[in-house]
Fold these 4 entries.
Entry 1:
Amino acid sequence: MMRAPAARAPNVGGGRPARPLDAQAFVQVVEVWVPDKAVLRHHSGAYGTHQEFARHSVSSTYQRGVGLPGTAWASGRVVVWQDLRHHLVSGQPAQTYGLDAGIAVPIYCGEALTSVLTILCGNRRHAGGCIEVWEVQEETRLVHAGAYYGPLD
């Protein structure tokens, strides 16, 4: 019996095509934002079933301190937003897209920001997993700095 190939996540921005994302996966969207003068511009992303979100996202920009990527840029640290219900994502309430939480990771080369990686998670009631953020303190100690948890049983 022949099986139809699995649908692929859109490959927005080039590179190798992304593997398919499961609609019930903990991580639903991953994006890369790059600095362009005073804003972060969309560079690439994997969206799975979130095609409408992808269409809005590719034309979005974020100023320093604005939105999840802009907040990570301004703080220079990993940012965890536990509840996206009251945040706009690509101009729409995040819950419109079924996204509950977001994590943004600023990436540096020396002192220069090269990109911000955003990871957007789906409904925590439907997918198990976790993302934890740990920070180095006093060069010898790790301190828990934030997390987002789905069911872990």
Entry 2:
Amino acid sequence: MSRFAKVVAVCALATNTPEAKTVCIDVAQSAERLGVDPLLAMAIAYKETHFRPRPGDGGKSRGVLQVSPYYHCPNRQAKGCDMLEAGIRYMRALSHATVLTTPKKIHKIKPSERVAYHVACHYKGGHTCGSASKASAYRVVRTMRKMRKAVE
């Protein structure tokens, strides 16, 4: 079984509806296509919305990855913007930016997980990685660990 087939199998385990499974697979495929670790994108999507395709928190963020159109879409508008692709492109930009600025040690985070932790932290908190964002990033990394074990 290929690695991507195993990732799709994780979608079946992590979701409880066919619609959520489809969204999970879409997240994994888009991440793979755009050069982002599918498990990172899936873990962020799971923590943000539990793969619900139309979540609504009353805020300005949209889509399964809770993307802010103002910051991540053309013309700063949701209309005509693929929220999934915009969110994954943002993850890719964060991963390239944080490779150079990641500290050598982070409590409870393995060295191989440092970039994922920082991507998740800044994905949640923007420019600052405050205490709430750090807690969220740690939960994303723990979810990634569980998904990675299911894939292996």
Entry 3:
Amino acid sequence: MLNSANFKVSDDEFNKIASLIEKISAIEYISNGNLSAAMEDIYGKREAIFMITMSISDILKKLTSNNVVLKVVLGDDNVEKIIKQRNLLGHDYDSIKPHITMSVLKNVLPEFKEAIKEHIPDAYEQGIKDFNEKVALKKEAETNNLKIKIKKQ
């Protein structure tokens, strides 16, 4: 068991919570502060956000099915809203209303981040660290691809 500030979590829960923070950060990165515009980017950012939302929901289901306290910390209603979005995305994609998904994400994800930052700060920091490492790798890969293209010219 890891003891993070006010809340004890198992190693597995810690890793899932860190992954949750990483994925929330990824949505923020993809949307670049403008979730509305990102949701309008059909076949691009919107689909990436939808896929990450499904992953967030899957993590939440696993975390909260065994840990009722964690569900309370994150907000039972918020957890259910994200899970509902995942079910629509996975099983009824044609009925998705992007503005509703956007509203849920805009309101719920920041609350998740704050709750985790407050109650499980070690997992929060690990998630941010993991996200930053992946962004650095992405930027390095983009730079290397640019160098290869320049060499070919």
Entry 4:
Amino acid sequence: MKNQERTEKNKDSAVYKIPCGGCSSAYYGETSRGVATRIREHKNDMRLHKTTNSMVVHAEEYGHLPDWANTEILHAGLNRLARRTVEAAYIVTEETTNHKEGFIKLARAPAGIIAAAVRSHKRQSGSRSGITQATSPPMNQPVTCPNPRQPVR
């Protein structure tokens, strides 16, 4: 019974990626309440210009809007510790718009190992799935944005 309760508790949890519509950066997040709910909250933050949201800061600094239509659920059904660890690994190893490291602070070396392991697992299990949302208005021209968080390769 306890295993079933855990599965039920984590069924809406996910680590997700929202790409930027104007550069190669992306926002990485995690939620236990479902990605659709979290996207709705992000869109509301954009509408209200809440500068506590990394995507709002990126939009105001560079004039780029999130590419909602290409949001990806990277991993689903993870418990809180796993979700937060995987999110932190993506933030440290990828080019991101995130201005916070996440709940768990990871050094680059362990983050790279974790990110490689979760990517390998995702490829083997085929767990990558996108979600559909309303699209952002197209940008007039792509803008290259300097980002201090360069990906680890």
